[in-house]
């Protein structure tokens, strides 16, 4: 007997516990998917212009999602809520472009951790909607958020940061958090979620493609120096990045719908920890002491949230 399908026969406290468990499972799956997508995207941008990586990976995701929408007849669930998906599709690329620009201005050790503060947006939305964590969970949330920021390896000393870089980073963080809040409101069913994700990705491609065209007209590059062959050879990796990002949006929406958005947002926002650990495990990049401490603190926070 599946506990979620038949939870109406269970006591209220047990149903609440099961919903919370499913929220944690989906949210942690989101963190893994976003973390690996960011890791893969980071590797690809070493050979291919960042905007091209974003646009091509999203085009591949649109093709797969389009097939899913046709197969499941998800288009029959079109409604006003899809405007949330359109908004997420507009805000997402804008936030990503601002983040890339901020990284270029640097220093990355300040920009990257600040970008993680986007979790504040869905957390605030959850509080406004009535989410009230208990004392143990509240402590876990604080520990997890601080750990996420530290896992980015913040630079506490060094050259001053340009005001423009700070502004762009905070804009990007707000955008990332807004996408999380918007996509959670874009559907109420699984098939509706397929349609919402499809609409979001089509919008992503339109906005990102426009930005890429504008960049080329201003003298930017759309292709790597080696030409189209590099993109062709990288298609499997580009598809993984696009589909992992789509899947992460889907699992996050499911997490937010099945439990408190506040908890879903914090657990899903552990993805920078996943990216840092992937770089350590695959690329043998040395974790700074502050990053290792942040990863540990984030995991402690996760345990407290789950235990609450």
Automatic annotation (TrEMBL):
One GO location term (cellular component): membrane
Gene3D superfamilies named among the record's database cross-references: 1.10.3730.20
Transmembrane residue ranges: 20-39, 51-76, 82-103, 110-129, 135-153, 165-184, 190-214, 235-255, 261-283, 290-307
Statement: the UniProt record of this protein carries the keyword Phosphoprotein: no
Domain EamA: 24-151, 165-306
Keyword Transmembrane part of the UniProt annotation: yes
UniProt-listed SUPFAM superfamilies: Multidrug resistance efflux transporter EmrE
UniProt KW keywords: Membrane, Transmembrane, Transmembrane helix
Stated family: Belongs to the EamA transporter family.
Protein's recorded name: Membrane protein
Provenance organism: Streptomyces filamentosus (Streptomyces roseosporus)
């Amino acid at each position: 007997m599946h506990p979620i399908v038949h939870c109406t026969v269970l006591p209220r406290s047990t149903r609440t516990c099961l919903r919370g468990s499913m929220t944690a499972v989906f949210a942690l799956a989101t963190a893994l998917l976003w973390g690996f997508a960011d890791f893969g995207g980071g590797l690809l941008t070493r050979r291919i212009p960042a905007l091209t990586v974003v646009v091509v990976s999203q085009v591949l995701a649109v093709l797969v999602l389009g097939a899913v929408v046709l197969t499941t007849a998800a288009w029959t669930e079109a409604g006003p809520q899809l405007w949330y998906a359109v908004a997420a599709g507009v805000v997402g690329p804008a936030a990503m472009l601002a983040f890339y620009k901020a990284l270029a201005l640097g220093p990355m050790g300040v920009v990257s951790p600040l970008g993680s503060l986007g979790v504040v947006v869905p957390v605030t939305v959850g509080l406004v909607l009535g989410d009230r964590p208990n004392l143990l969970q509240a402590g876990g949330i604080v520990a997890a958020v601080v750990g996420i920021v530290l896992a980015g390896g913040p630079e506490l000393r060094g050259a001053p940061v340009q005001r423009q870089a700070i502004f762009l980073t905070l804009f990007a963080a707000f955008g990332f958090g807004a996408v999380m809040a918007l996509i959670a409101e874009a559907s109420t069913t699984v098939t509706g979620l397929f349609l919402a994700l499809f609409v979001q990705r089509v919008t992503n491609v339109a906005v990102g493609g426009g930005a890429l065209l504008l960049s080329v007209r201003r003298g930017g590059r759309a292709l790597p120096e080696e030409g189209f062959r590099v993109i062709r050879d990288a298609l499997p990796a580009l598809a993984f990045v696009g589909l992992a990002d789509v899947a992460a949006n889907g699992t996050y929406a499911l997490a937010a719908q099945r439990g408190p958005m506040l908890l879903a947002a914090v657990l899903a926002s552990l993805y920078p920890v996943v990216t840092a650990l992937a770089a350590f495990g695959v690329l043998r990049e040395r974790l700074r002491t502050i990053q290792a401490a942040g990863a540990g603190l984030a995991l402690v926070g996760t345990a407290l949230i789950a235990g609450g």
